[in-house]
Amino acid sequence: MDIKNNILETIGNTPLIRLNSITKALPCPVLAKVEYFNPGNSIKDRMALKMVEVAEKEGKLKPGGTIIECTSGNTGMGLALAAVVKGYKCIFTTTDKQSKEKLNILRAVGAEVIVCPTDVEPDDPRSYYSVARKLAAETPNSFHCNQYDNFANRQAHFETTGPEIWEQTDGKVTHLIVATGTGGTITGTAQYLKKMNPEIQVWAIDPYGSLLAHYFETGEVDMSQVHPYISEGIGEDFVPKNYDMSVVDRFEKVTDKEGAIMARRIALEEGIFAGYSAGTALQGLMQLSTLLNKDSLPVVIFHDHGSRYVGKIYNDTWMKEKGFL
Ligand code: PMP
Questions:
Q1: Is 113 helix (H, G, I), strand (E, B) or coil?
Q2: pLDDT digit string, tens, across residues 72-107
Q3: What is the CATH code of the structural domain delimited by 44-144?
Q4: Which of 101, 231, 264, 296 is the most buried (most CB within 10 A)?
Q5: Of all protein residues, whose CA lies closest to atom 3 belonging to ligand 1?
């Protein structure tokens, strides 16, 4: 018999899928690590489970406890699944720019969701970071995961995402391309891959409106880089502790429009119905494609599933309103 004891045992071991159309003109194959095959439909299931397991081990999360987190949806989904199986409550704070689909999905798996304004500074008391911190202080027997600064985030990718890519490519991977947010995916995966082969090139993809690329290039946190943008789950207005910039070789900026259009092409031309940041990541790779040659084997991460964006990038009216079509 081959039976999983619960849904959490289905996390990870996602497929690596060759792209056959969009990247046809490139000198090398391009492989997508399609993370929507995780049970919560995103890569964040990996780190959510890890954060819970580490908190349990360290005694920070006790039976009957409440998990508190600020999340754009995907981390929340992973945490909610772990909470259902392990018997915890969840309260999430999120921002008013996130798709309604994401919030309803979180409520469907039992989480309480509090929506906060997007366009305030991180230390403003109304920001989703501040509201989560306050809740954590006021709620007895609660644990604030803080995915930005909690090293269990990048550790999950060091232990699972990195080794999977290494094994699936038989150690032949040459480039890792990741649209980046908390930095957990890129840092943990890159730390593992570079440990195996320091020659592997790691490219971070950043939306306009985020300060990460400028920080990488200059070491300065420049708030003049920061403005509202539409891409979801990626870019930051501060530098989370999960980043180890020493494992990143370059940052590439992608516009909201080009990311959205590329996500639609991935669905139409590859039959892979992925989320917005998959489009952003692949667009970044295409912008840098002159750096690839016939011996390259780039792997690009597709973080989540397209169903979360049917009211947005997969909706022609929304695309026209934003001037993307
Ligand atoms: N894409 C999506 C859709 C996400 O939800 C996230 C997580 N914020 C990312 C990309 C970036 O991943 P990470 O936080 O590990 O940098």
A1: strand
A2: 689 999 999 999 999 999 999 998 877 787 888 899
A3: 3.40.50.1100
A4: 231
A5: 233
Q: How far apart are CA 112 and CA 290, in angstroms?
A: 46
Structure tokens of 36? 């929507």
> Does 303 sit in the ligand 1 pocket, CB within 6 Å?
yes
**Residue nearest atom 7 of ligand 1, based on CA coordinates:** 233
Ligand 1 center–CA 322 separation, angstroms: 22
Domain map (residue ranges) of the chain: 7-38+151-321, 44-144
CA 1 to ligand 1 center in whole angstroms: 35
- CB burial of residue 34 (10 Å; 0-12, 13-18, 19+): buried
Count of residues making up the chain = 325
Q: Does domain 7-38+151-321 have CATH number 3.90.226.10?
A: no
Distance 183 CA to ligand 1 centre (A): 8
Q: Which atom of ligand 1 is nearest to the CA of 154?
A: 15
